[in-house]
Amino acid sequence: AKPRVGYFHLQDNSYLAEINKLYTKEVAEVKSVPVVVTEKTSIYNAITTLFLEDVGSLFVVDEEDKNLVGVISRKDLLKITIGDADINQVPVSVAMTRMPNIITIRADDTVLLAAKRLVNYEIDALPVVENFIDESGEPLEDKLKVIGRVSKTNITRVLADLGLEM
Amino acid sequence: AKPRVGYFHLQDNSYLAEINKLYTKEVAEVKSVPVVVTEKTSIYNAITTLFLEDVGSLFVVDEEDKNLVGVISRKDLLKITIGDADINQVPVSVAMTRMPNIITIRADDTVLLAAKRLVNYEIDALPVVENFIDESGEPLEDKLKVIGRVSKTNITRVLADLGLEM
Q: Which among B9, B82, B166 has the least Cβ separation from residue A23?
């Protein structure tokens, strides 16, 4: 059968299904477990956590409220480590990117939006967040709970898995 | 018009074109300029290069032949920096991943294959290589010339650009 205008012959329907999934896939489907430290964690312990958990960025939360206060990357850690600081004493709060400069994503946002944010803001990982809820059930606007992590690794995996259909 | 079995109605042909490009796109179209140091470069200078060039991995070449001998990542640099080594004296060759353990890619391989390798081998960047040619015009099997870099950033950008069509 010849392809007609407006129609396209698909030899493999799974190919189409994969493509459709790509356009609708949500962050919730691809996110990883977040690796979190508190503001008072030392640079040295943060580096240890980075290696033990095998991630590229750590999310920093307030010790009491557990709300998101910072993100610290391999490069942030490398920069402070080559300086004069005593990395056993200095806390991650000194070297991290702080709120409100942290770029976040929501679980029901698309993977494509996550990809755009990672590229546009030149970052390696986005914390997946939701608002903390106050006693009356209202969302607290400035208090973000970290519920996941989406990195360039997760995005690359989406494309790699698509390739399985080749 | 109702979709029929084996056909799919496409409201937007650019969407199809984008998808097709995704399956056929080659590394040559998305690769970045490689950032290269020699085996004798100090850890400290490698770190400086990493920040100046704004990359996550450096490729290490032989000082004379310029063939690929290693790859050094942010984590390799971080690991040696928190140790006892004098990072102004110690060369990158001490901390790098060496040939033949380096995963590479060719310019005419697909972006999907690059994505698979990045995920499967858990690395951040692949050197794009070609063989050096000897005097008689034959490719030298073990001598690889670095002609580019494909990282998870390049892959994420492919997906982010696809999203422009949404």
A: B166
pLDDT digit of tens for each residue in chain B (166 aa)? 444 444 444 455 566 666 677 778 999 999 999 999 999 999 999 999 999 999 999 999 999 989 999 999 999 999 999 998 999 999 999 999 998 999 999 999 999 999 999 999 999 999 999 999 888 988 888 899 999 999 999 999 998 987 664 4
Q: How far is CA B36 from the centre of its chain?
A: 12
Sole residue written with tokens 């799919």: B8
Substitution target from A82, A87, A88, A123 for chain B, most B beta carbons within 10 A? A82
Domain that holds residue B109: 26-165
Select from B25, B20, B47, B19 the least CA-distant residue to B107. Answer: B25
Tell me, yes or no, if A2 comes closer than 8 A to chain B by beta carbon. Answer: no
Q: Is residue A46 part of a domain?
A: yes
B7 assigned to some structural domain: no
Over its C-alpha atoms, chain A yields an Rg (Å, rounded) of: 20
Total domains present in chain B: 1
- Mutation target to probe the A interface, by most A beta carbons within 10 A, among B79, B103, B159 is B159
CATH of the domain at A47: 3.10.580.10
User: What is the predicted ipTM?
Assistant: 0.86
Give domain status of residue A124, yes or no.
yes
